[in-house]
């Protein structure tokens, strides 16, 4: 009954799950962020993956690119909220739209910050792919 080989320790992690949980894009095991999305101390991103040791910031200033991703997310969200506000209220009052849009930007900014970086590393970084062999349990941990 103890014939469990090393291969069985490797369970491929689905991309969607790893993406939603903001896991490392290479091993899909290590966290990218040290604390919660809405934690009061702000979001701390790990420099390196705690599981496979990959450096998240591929080159100096790499996450500046995430600002463009974040910008695109903001535009998409604002259009969505503006259309929804119009459909729900039918109002033409500009202050209503300004209030709704500014409120949604503020509420969604931690989400945008986090997932712009996740999207950048998952979809927009050439040469960075999931390596299932790295998602195995660490040996020294013995877990
Ligand atoms: Zn990793």
TrEMBL record:
Pfam families reported for this sequence: DUF983 (PF06170)
InterPro entries referenced in this protein's UniProt entry, alphabetically: DUF983 (IPR009325)
Keyword annotations: Membrane, Transmembrane, Transmembrane helix
Spans through the membrane: 62-88, 94-113
Protein name according to UniProt: DUF983 domain-containing protein
Organism expressing this protein natively: Mucilaginibacter hurinus
